[in-house]
């Protein structure tokens, strides 16, 4: 390649193309025959030419005013760029994010929608996952109406406890509850919520024991890691949610309580962020289902 040009690697195309200095990514890719979508003709009025910068972000020009406006509207992270507005000033590697007609439709709907974060962005958060201990025998012993009533009571009180600690319930899965804590102090807020859920569960047990002759208890796992936050679902039923390995790890930590004989377990990543303010109990080095290696998990009994 000529010394006056830069090298742009593209995924999923598996190609490396030439780009003249200050040429836009869009023009360079189109000139090389890469099928990059550009519904508005490269005027920053849509987001269909967006790419993910895998390498060489510092070699690309800063966002233009038009790109800044689109990035703010769709809450792009710093590595998501509009190819039509991004000028090349060095070698880089990018991944096209709009590949086919389905992707194009999703991008168009995201731009037309009222909610932010439809595209999604990465963020480091604390994830709390809770489950009702012994739910299967409980559900088998009670009439379906009573099971639903008991779960709804639990979810109402648990949701209030999560919100009171600054979190948001992201999803319900059977008897499971997934909550997200964001911002400074997310890990400590999630642990406070985990301990609050234990107190709520104790109250639930006082409620359920005389009515159904059964105690009520929950297990909670907390992990800290990076997830993708964005809107998920069909247009008529779209909602914000979190997806990523950190969610899976939190779920596995919650399940590990059964083997460890504990009620609240957290990962090393959470314990480090508590900065010595936690009262810990047992420590367990366990394998987590679907994960390689062992994870050191810590029982938390109090937080100052």
Describe the structure.
This protein is an alpha+beta fold. It has two domains: 6-112, Ubiquitin-like (UB roll), CATH 3.10.20; 121-303, Alpha-Beta Plaits (2-Layer Sandwich), CATH 3.30.70.1230. Helices cover 35% and strands 31% of the residues. The protein is built from eight helices and 13 strands. Strands 6, 7, 8, 9, 10, 11, 12 and 13 form an eight-stranded mixed sheet that branches. Strands 2-1-5-3-4 form a five-stranded mixed sheet, covered by helices on one side. It starts with 5 loop residues before the first strand and ends with a strand. The relative contact order is 0.11.
Number of strand segments: 13
- Globular, elongated, flat, extended or rod-shaped: what is the shape? elongated
Specify the CATH architecture of the largest domain: 2-Layer Sandwich
Class inferred from helices and paired strands: alpha+beta
Mean pLDDT: 88
* Poorly predicted parts: 114-118
The CATH topology of the largest domain turns out to be: Alpha-Beta Plaits
Instruction: Provide the helix percentage.
Output: 25-40%
Structural domains: how many:
2
CATH C-level name of the largest domain:
Alpha Beta
Distance between the termini: 62 Å
């Amino acid at each position: 390649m000529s010394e006056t040009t830069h090298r742009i690697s593209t995924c999923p195309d598996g190609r490396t193309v030439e780009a003249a200095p200050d040429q836009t990514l869009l023009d360079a890719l189109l000139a090389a025959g890469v099928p990059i979508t550009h519904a508005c003709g490269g005027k920053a009025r849509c987001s269909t030419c967006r790419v993910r910068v895998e390498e060489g972000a510092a070699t690309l020009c800063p966002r233009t005013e038009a790109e800044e406006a689109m990035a703010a509207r769709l809450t792009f992270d710093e590595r998501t760029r509009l190819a039509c507005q991004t000028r090349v000033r060095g070698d880089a590697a990018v991944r096209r994010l709009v590949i086919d007609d389905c992707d194009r439709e999703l991008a168009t709907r995201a731009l037309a929608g009222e909610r932010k974060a439809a595209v999604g962005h990465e963020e480091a958060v604390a994830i709390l996952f809770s489950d009702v201990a012994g739910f299967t025998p409980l559900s088998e012993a009670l009439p379906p109406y009573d099971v639903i009533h008991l779960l709804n009571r639990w979810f109402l009180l648990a949701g209030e406890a999560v919100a009171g600690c600054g979190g948001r319930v992201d999803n319900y899965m059977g008897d499971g509850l997934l909550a997200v804590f964001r911002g400074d102090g997310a890990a400590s807020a999630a642990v406070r919520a985990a301990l609050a859920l234990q107190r709520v569960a104790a109250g639930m047990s006082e409620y359920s024991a005389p009515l159904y002759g059964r105690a009520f208890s929950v297990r909670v796992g907390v992990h800290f890691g990076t997830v993708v936050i964005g809107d998920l679902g069909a247009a008529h039923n779209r909602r914000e949610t979190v997806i990523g390995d950190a969610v899976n790890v939190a779920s596995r930590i919650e399940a590990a309580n059964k083997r460890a004989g504990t009620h609240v377990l957290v990962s090393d990543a959470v314990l480090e962020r508590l900065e010595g303010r936690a009262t810990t109990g047992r420590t367990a080095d366990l394998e987590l289902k679907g994960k390689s290696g062992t994870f050191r998990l810590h029982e938390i009994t109090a937080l100052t």
